[in-house]
Amino acid sequence: MADEQQKTAAVVDGERPLTDKELEAMLRKSEKVTEFPEVTFDEFTEPTWDEWVEACNALLKGKPFDKIMYTKNYEGITFDPIYTRKGTDAILPTNDYPGMGDFLRGATVNGYVHEPWGIAQACDETLPAENNELLKEEISKGSTVYNIKLDTATKNGVDVKDAEKPGDIGVNVTTVEDMSVLLNGLKLDKYPIMMYTGAGAKNLLALTVAALKGAGHDVKTLRGVIGGDPIGELVKTGKTETSLDALYDEMAETIKFAKANTPELRTVFINSDAYTDGGAEAVQEVAYTFATAVEYVRQMQKRGVELHDIANSLYFCFNQGANFFMEIAKLRSLRMIWAAIMEAFGAEEADRAIKVHGRCARFTKTVVD
After folding, report:
1. Among 54, 201, 216, 295, which residue carries the largest CB count within 10 Å?
2. Which parts of the chain have pLDDT scores under 70?
3. In the chain, what are the domain boundaries?
4. Beta bridge partners of 317
């Protein structure tokens, strides 16, 4: 608007209209652009490894360099004290791009430039109305995903009147009315939803669709995940309310329903909680979680679900520890592993990408909890 006004003034007040070049020069002058000199680092000499070690030893004051500066982590991997380009240039992927190949650098072609990682703060208020307000507040504060945390009774399909501890770890949803209150006014056409439903997703998916249709929403715009993890629940609690075969049948039904009615919504939410909470390190966490996922793929194929539809129904949750670079390495490696698994199943390249939700592992909080 300001540029338009300046250009108009130049035409009206002057004896002749300014040319584009003259106008651009005038605007550039008025902006008082500061020209910064080019900075080089030629004045600094690059230290050698031996010189760096000598400087470290001076600071260590007699403490053994090899014992202090090399760090062995929970996975049994020893970290070097410093990493430089000379040590990494040979192993950097030069023929790999985001959104293709083994998906090492991300699931989309533009990486995370236009679509960064979502922010999914869990909302666990007990009452649907209060949780609804919390969901809206979190979006206003920067969240980009509606992350609804359900209580134990809801995940187990227990009516609130029969629940031992309603609202123990999240919101209690028993009826369509409860779900309508919970979802009231949420911008589900703009922000994805996330809801872990326990062993099965059918009941909560049905409540969600019924509530949205009742409010006049087009459920085809619904995206994100409303999904269950029967094996994960079995490992975590030692039991399920019904047999695994029955839960697999239900899983196949939800995948087929979602394909026809909510094509952007995933209905299988595979969690690594049971393994990391049980003491698994990163390698074990990835191995056990993917073993669970492989079983689901095989069971869905037995039930006539196409591999493409299976791939687009899976959503993974991996826990993140406090070792920043180790967790980055884990996320990059699991993309490659899952791509290789899906390739072995015969999936097309686009169906080998993995959808991941990462969250802080509970074991990182044990010091203060």
Report:
1. 201
2. 1-18, 20, 23-24, 26-34, 366-369
3. 1-35, 107-365
4. 271, 357
Q: Please give the DSSP secondary-structure letter assigned to residue 190.
A: T
Tens digit of each residue's pLDDT (9 = 90 or more) over 318-355 = 999 888 888 999 999 999 999 999 999 999 999 999 99
CA gap 116, 101 in Å, rounded? 20
- What is the rounded CA–CA span in Å between residue 91 and residue 141? 40
The CA distance from 341 to 335, in Å, is 10
The tally of CA atoms less than 13 A away on the side-chain side of residue 198 is 22
Say which CATH superfamily domain 107-365 falls into: Methylmalonyl-CoA mutase (3.20.20.240)
Residue 79: strand, helix, or coil = strand
Q: Alpha-carbon distance 61 to 64, whole Å?
A: 9
Total count of residues recorded for the chain: 369
Place of tokens 């670079």: 325
What amino acid occupies position 15?
A: E
Nearest alpha carbon to residue 297 among 320, 316, 283: 316
CA dist., res. 258 & res. 209, Å (int): 10
Q: Which helix (H) or strand (E) holds 72?
A: strand 71-72
pLDDT value of residue 18: 64
Using DSSP's 3-state secondary structure scheme, residue 314 falls into strand
Task: Using the structure block, give the residue that is written with the tokens 């501890």.
Answer: 165
Structure tokens at 285: 């966490």
Q: Note the pLDDT of residue 30.
A: 59
Quick one: pLDDT at residue 2? 43
Provide the phi-psi class of 71: left if phi over 0, else alpha when psi is between -120 and 50, else beta.
beta
